[in-house]
Amino acid sequence: MELTTIVGNLLGAIDADNIEVKALELAGMESGEAGEEFRRTAREQLVGKATAVFTGGLIELIDRIRRDKEQTIDHDTLDKLLRAEWDKAMLRPWWTNLPPILRSSRTGLKP
User: Structure pTM?
Assistant: First the structure.
């Protein structure tokens, strides 16, 4: 089953319109108000069907991918600034592309 189908089924299982259609089907009605009990049963059935693909193997795979891609943000340790300077290799092309008037000594700009 494709990922787009799985995601579509999950989103469809919590869509109020889909739940109402399923609730009416369970109540044996074509239109009207099915009632909260039928909606609850319909939602449980739709969610159960949508989540049936999440077996042990798939859950383990998703969890393994999550752990591999997980980032830990350290809020407690302060960073130490090693140096603060312009990257002259990056600045040189920028400087040479400026119009001559901006590169003149009157502006005070220097490469």
Answer: 0.53
